[in-house]
Amino acid sequence: MTDFDGRTVLVTGASGGIGGATVRALVAAHADVIAAGRSATALDQLAAETGCRTLTFDLTSEESVRGALEGVDVYGVVNCGGFGGEIATPMETDIEVFDQVIATNARGALLVIKYTSASMIRLGRGGAIVNVSSQASLVALRGHISYGSSKAALDNITRVSALELGQYGIRVNGVNPTVVMTPMSAWYWGREDVQGPFLAAMPLGRWATEDEIAAPIVFLLSDGASMITGVSLPVDGGFTSQ
């Protein structure tokens, strides 16, 4: 079993499904977890369940991210905070929504890397960062112009950060999940005209669970992945392999 031996890991978007599952998996692996997000109430519930620490800040505000993270020493980071935006074609997209999606999913993750990597470099002990991307960055999905673009940007942030931070022993990787069927995603992905053709095109033919996404995140943070950096790992039942 992976053992983080009390090393501190920050998880953004911790009040969400994948974020919460990641917090639980890291706590089980003896990490000192800081669960971050915007909803103090949701984070408090997670802390009561797992014993994690909590931190609230707004990913879209550099002032908020800097104020929360300056002086916080971490070994690892999971950038799981995200915003789905809208289902729209390029012809129909609301550019204000596009800007909000980019500001959270790409710019927000970069801000977290900016301020946590400074701590890692100062401590001189290396570290690991995992960015939670999406299958939507790897293949074209109808209606996903904003979300897919933001996650494609995040994939490049992963690669460039791995290149720049490798000299400090800091690894940066991404996971690219398929759909986890939650109440938030069911309104679109649960539609029969969407769900049927999508699952028919996936080799494993089913939705992912939150724990199935958390497990590779924890692995990429761990010493077992000590020679892995700069990768975007599809966790998608084979959907993007075609």
Structure description:
The protein is of the alpha/beta class and 242 residues long. The protein contains 8 helices and 7 strands; from the N terminus they run βαβαβαβαβαβαααβ. The protein has helices at 17-28, 40-50, 62-69, 95-123, 145-165, 183-189, 192-200, 210-221; strands spanning 8-11, 32-37, 53-56, 76-79, 127-132, 170-177, 232-235. It has a 7-stranded parallel β-sheet, with helices on both faces. α2 (40-50) links the parallel β2 (32-37) and β3. The mean pLDDT is 96.
CATH architecture assignment: 3-Layer(aba) Sandwich
Radius of gyration: 17 Å
- Secondary structural class: alpha/beta
Number of domains: 1
Which term fits the overall shape? globular
Total number of helical segments? 8
Strand numbers in spatial order across the main sheet: 3-2-1-4-5-6-7
**Multimeric state:** single chain
Q: State the share of residues found in helices, binned by percent.
A: 40-55%
**How is the CATH topology named?**
Rossmann fold
Major sheet attributes: 7 strands, parallel
Tell me what portion of residues adopts beta-strand conformation.
5-15%
Low-confidence stretches: none
SSE run = EHEHEHEHEHEHHHE
Notable features of this structure?
242 residues, alpha/beta, Rossmann fold, seven-stranded parallel β-sheet, 7 strands
